[in-house]
Q: What sequence folds into this?
């Protein structure tokens, strides 16, 4: 399946495909998800949600619901007037006005999208509260809804009447001389590139259990960001932060949709405090499809100029981004993340992204796996193929001509960011070892004469990952109102067993395995005695969570550094015990030994025993526990080259992915199997978007794709067996040289699939088509091309 | 995803099940595999007050051949049909329903009584001119396929009757095919065509073509059948006859398919099904 092209940089465990430490409990059903957790006296919540896309709430009659047996309370937005603040939106870009109307856990006076919460019923029985919720009578005065973000640009109805506009904000990132770039161009292509709305659709929907007692709140939530959640619980509820503990138990997938501070989390906590009893809410799949934040939904007008030889002179993108009804935690920032890498892996002298964010009467959007960067890569890579066709150039040739050469790294690009590392030719060369393009072209021609339409598409990408560094992402920089460093605490126990507390918060990635491999090598122990603890604000240092392919590059480095402090202290202890110099102590796979005399040394257990007994050098603190906070100097920029081969049944329009090859470079591999898993999942995610998945609202704002019957996640039957490979170009930013891989597949694949379908259909006169490439849309494009040809 | 409160009974005889149905009338629902009913209840589209589970009722299982036709118990799951290739097109179509997990639970009787026009087995029953046995308080009656499907998810089965057995002519010597077009492998048909053909010396002796998801009920493509019956069966005649496949159909549109697209699919799938059934390249 996958081959390592270079020897891994690590030691005995780093670089190995160690089996996941998480898996035994997961595959034997012993893991504890939110719905497995109960507290004595626990009540259940069921939420009354708006069936209207836009309406004024005339009245709410909760009397029938209150009379149901076992119902303790019914609350509406008015009951929650004591909240200290509305739900958070944490992006305040310097110098940019962002319209951010109040957003409350329960609607106050009006609803803005289908599913907007209106009331909550609290009762003793999980099922009966659902019946009681159905008894809450809400009278609505229906208001006109707007669902098309481009129509919303020019006219009402307004989602938030008091604003007098549907525009959220405008934001531009520009570098280089755009006018000169286009003046210099021999050819300019322009396309309207639609990146449609998708759902996060984790296997485990959201859920929360709030237990407020004796002035303290413990809250379990299926979240990617327990520390942010604690902070905002404290702020909104007016509690002192040390009185709030948030625990993310096993989390069954997030894909960005759990990088959020949700109204339901605040609501459960507020209800528990109000009633003095624990309150649990478990989201249904129907709710998840309607109200968990969604992603993408950008319409981009791309314009790329180039000289006759294919040299790109300028790239301009205007994005209309559909944010839905409210700004969530980071909603308006998402398209900006793409803007930083709008030049892709190409040397383009002028790059500009103009973003306008729009309110519509739909579920809010926010980060979904890739968050702005899949959209940007799609815009670049699809437009570039269009340019290549216009110039009569091979799509790979035009890419190679524009690649930033490896000797330019670290490379400052037009958008102002500095790409830390890159060797794009090498990755593409590796891809072409797997894909024989000339042979494919011969086969394609042969098949085409038999009426079989096969196409190949490529995407070469780079992305901006390892979210951090705080000085860039923070209030004075990009405008996130928080530092995005990461933390770790390493505790070596008396016996030499190791517990590592990380501020990152996994939801399927395999942190417990990868981090244990790093620590095991540093300390000369087996990964099986290294436990990774995460997702609990009550046990480890303050952290920031898992998103943006940041875990290894920030959290892993923090673990590495905290463990490094342990190593230094251990060396001093060993040197003291053996009467050697600390600099002569080295870590072997079994012990801390004196260089040149491997028989002389102490195991980690012996070091720890000594440290806790207190037999340490004079002036040294006893114990063996260290903390590190790590804030990198720069982002990291993984990159890769992907190829997709599709067969199109041109009679029906059905697309089948016949082959998918991914070569990615995320630096030295800590665990190649985990990397493959991330690439597989990411590519499947994006094949899903390209061909199957789409959130659809009708013009009245009703959600059409509210179940997995019509929101079509791909299954094993739709996804090919992936071929993956890697190159390893270390990042100079962190000591592990690692970058990030969680989002890479989603970032590259929509463009590779789309370009492949267009490649297959060019003989029929189809030169461009927007996602999702459903059979209907492909068939209509073919019919239209036929009509055009005959006209 | 939580249904409205309901009562549950699992009677051990058909008579008892019918008695329960009569008592609770339209508010009672029969439970077979539950793969259509339970999701509808969880979404609160269906709210029966009583579920009568048929799993303990004897005599609703098994597949037998008798006098040139197949007798299939109402509770036979799709997976058993799939694993009984002697059933010909019934087996072929059953193997294309959803995924194996669904096929292990879903039953032929349930599928026919539910009468979703996007389901496969109603079309197969109609194409093969099969029938169903229906038991009521006053005894058993047989309903022919052409009389069974009355409207969208409506059948000729009375509110206090139970579909007990499916009868399919064996159609020995017929070629057959079931061409199903879906977005994902596990989805309901966007359109599907069932074809059974009997050919003697290059002449089409008999042909029957059924259409799935092309209207409120399963349909027969009569125009195609008439164009082919008694004439030569080859690639050209099949291609030209298949152009008539959408005649008289009234498909609805949805996110996946417009009515025009469905009609186009019916024509393409009809040609492919006939080619396969007739063994014509």
A:
């Amino acid at each position: 399946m996958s081959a390592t092209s270079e020897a891994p940089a690590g030691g005995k465990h780093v670089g190995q495909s160690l089996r996941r430490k998480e898996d035994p409990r997961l595959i034997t059903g012993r893991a504890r998800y939110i719905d497995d957790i109960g507290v004595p006296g626990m009540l259940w919540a069921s939420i009354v949600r708006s069936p209207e896309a836009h309406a004024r709430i005339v009245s709410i009659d909760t009397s029938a619901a209150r009379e149901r047996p076992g119902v303790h309370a019914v609350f509406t937005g008015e009951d929650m007037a004591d909240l200290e603040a509305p739900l958070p939106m944490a992006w305040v870009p310097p110098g940019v006005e962002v319209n951010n109307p109040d957003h409350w856990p329960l609607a106050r006076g009006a609803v803005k999208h289908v599913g907007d919460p209106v009331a909550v019923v609290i009762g003793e029985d999980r099922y009966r509260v659902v019946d009681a919720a159905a008894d809450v009578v809400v009278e609505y005065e229906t208001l006109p809804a707007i669902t098309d973000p481009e129509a919303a640009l020019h006219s009402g109805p307004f989602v938030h009447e008091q604003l007098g506009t549907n525009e959220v904000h405008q934001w531009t990132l520009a570098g280089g001389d755009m006018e000169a770039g286009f003046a210099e161009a021999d050819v300019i292509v322009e396309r309207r590139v639609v990146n449609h709305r998708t759902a996060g659709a984790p296997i485990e929907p959201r859920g929360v259990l709030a237990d407020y007692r004796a002035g303290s709140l413990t809250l379990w939530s299926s979240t990617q960001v327990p520390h942010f959640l604690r902070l905002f619980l404290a702020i909104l509820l007016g509690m002192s932060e040390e009185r709030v503990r948030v625990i993310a138990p096993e989390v069954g997938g997030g894909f960005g949709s759990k990088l959020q501070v949700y109204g339901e989390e605040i609501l459960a906590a507020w209800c528990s405090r109000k009633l003095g009893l624990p309150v649990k809410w478990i989201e249904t799949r129907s709710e998840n499809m309607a109200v968990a934040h969604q992603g993408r939904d950008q319409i981009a007008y791309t314009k790329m100029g180039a000289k006759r030889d294919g040299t790109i002179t300028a790239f301009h993108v205007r994005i209309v981004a559909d944010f839905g009804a409210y700004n969530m935690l980071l909603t308006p920032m998402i398209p900006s993340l793409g803007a930083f890498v709008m030049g892709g892996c190409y040397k383009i002298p002028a790059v500009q992204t103009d973003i306008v964010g729009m309110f519509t009467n739909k579920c809010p959007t926010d980060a979904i796996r890739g968050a702005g960067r899949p959209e940007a890569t799609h815009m670049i890579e699809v437009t570039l193929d269009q340019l290549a066709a216009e110039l009569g150039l091979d799509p790979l040739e035009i890419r190679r001509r524009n690649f930033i050469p490896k000797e330019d790294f670290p490379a400052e690009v037009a958008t102002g960011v500095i790409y830390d590392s890159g060797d794009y030719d090498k990755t593409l060369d590796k891809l072409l070892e797997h894909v024989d393009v000339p042979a494919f072209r011969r086969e394609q021609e042969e098949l085409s004469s038999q009426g079989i339409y096969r196409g190949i598409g490529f995407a070469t990408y780079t992305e901006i990952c390892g979210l951090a560094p705080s000085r860039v992402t923070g209030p004075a920089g990009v405008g996130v109102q928080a530092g995005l460093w990461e933390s770790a605490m390493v505790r070596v126990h008396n016996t030499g067993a190791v517990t590592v507390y990380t501020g990152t918060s996994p939801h399927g990635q395999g942190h417990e395995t990868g981090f244990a491999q790093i620590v095991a090598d540093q300390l000369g122990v087996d990964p099986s005695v290294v436990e990774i603890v995460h997702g609990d604000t009550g046990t480890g240092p303050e952290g920031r969570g898992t998103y943006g392919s940041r875990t290894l590059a920030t959290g892993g480095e923090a673990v590495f550094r905290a463990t490094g402090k342990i190593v230094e202290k251990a060396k001093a202890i060993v040197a003291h015990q053996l009467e050697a110099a600390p600099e002569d102590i080295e870590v072997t796979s079994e012990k801390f030994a004196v260089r040149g005399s491997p028989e002389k040394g102490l195991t980690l257990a012996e070091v720890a025993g000594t440290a806790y007994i207190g037999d340490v050098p004079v002036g040294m603190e006893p114990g063996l526990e260290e903390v590190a906070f790590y804030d990198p100097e720069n982002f990291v920029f993984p990159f890769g080259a992907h190829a997709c081969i599709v067969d199109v049944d041109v009679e029906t329009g059905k697309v089948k992915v016949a082959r998918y090859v991914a070569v990615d470079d995320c630096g030295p591999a800590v665990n190649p199997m985990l990397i493959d898993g991330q690439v597989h999942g990411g590519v499947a995610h994006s094949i899903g978007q390209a061909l199957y998945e789409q959130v659809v609202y009708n013009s009245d704002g009703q959600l059409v794709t509210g179940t997995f019957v019509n929101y079509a996640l791909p299954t094993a039957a739709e996804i090919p067996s992936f071929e993956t490979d890697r190159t390893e170009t270390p990042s100079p930013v962190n000591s592990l040289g690692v970058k990030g891989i969680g989002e890479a597949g989603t970032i590259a694949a929509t463009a590779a699939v789309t370009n492949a379908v267009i490649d297959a259909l060019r003989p029929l006169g189809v030169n461009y088509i927007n996602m999702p490439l459903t059979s209907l849309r492909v068939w209509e494009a073919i019919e239209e091309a036929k009509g055009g040809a005959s006209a | 995803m939580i249904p409205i409160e309901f009562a549950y009974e699992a009677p051990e005889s058909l008579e008892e099940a019918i008695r329960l149905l009569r008592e609770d009338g339209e508010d009672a629902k029969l439970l077979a595999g539950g793969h259509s009913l339970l999701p509808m209840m969880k979404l609160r589209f269906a709210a029966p007050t009583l579920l009568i589970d048929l799993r303990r009722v004897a005599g609703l299982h098994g597949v037998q051949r008798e006098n040139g036709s197949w007798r299939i118990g109402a509770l036979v799951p799709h997976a058993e049909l799939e694993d009984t290739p002697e059933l010909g097109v019934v087996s072929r179509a059953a193997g294309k329903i959803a995924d194996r997990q669904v096929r292990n639970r879903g039953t032929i009787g349930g599928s026919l009584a539910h009468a979703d026009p996007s389901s496969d087995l109603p079309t197969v029953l109609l194409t093969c001119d099969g029938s169903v046995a229906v038991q009521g308080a006053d005894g058993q009656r047989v309903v022919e396929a052409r009389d069974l499907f009355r409207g969208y998810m409506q059948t000729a089965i009375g509110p206090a009757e139970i579909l007990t057995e499916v009868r399919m002519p064996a159609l020995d010597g017929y070629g057959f095919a079931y061409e199903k077009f879906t977005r994902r492998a596990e989805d309901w048909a966007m359109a599907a065509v069932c074809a059974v053909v009997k050919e003697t010396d290059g002449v089409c002796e008999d042909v029957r073509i059924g259409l799935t998801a092309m209207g409120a009920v399963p349909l027969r493509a009569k125009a195609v059948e008439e164009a082919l019956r008694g004439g030569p069966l080859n690639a050209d005649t099949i291609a030209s006859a298949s152009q008539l496949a959408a005649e008289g159909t009234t498909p609805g549109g949805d996110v996946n398919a417009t009515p025009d697209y469905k009609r186009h699919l019916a024509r393409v799938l009809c040609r492919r099904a006939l080619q396969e059934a007739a063994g014509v390249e």
Observations:
- The first helix of chain B runs from residue 14 to 24.
- The mean pLDDT of chain B is 96.
- Chain B has eleven helices and 14 strands.
- Chain B touches chain A at residues 1-2, 4-5, 43-44, 99, 181, 183-188, 190, 254-258, 261, 264-265, 268 (CB under 8 Å).
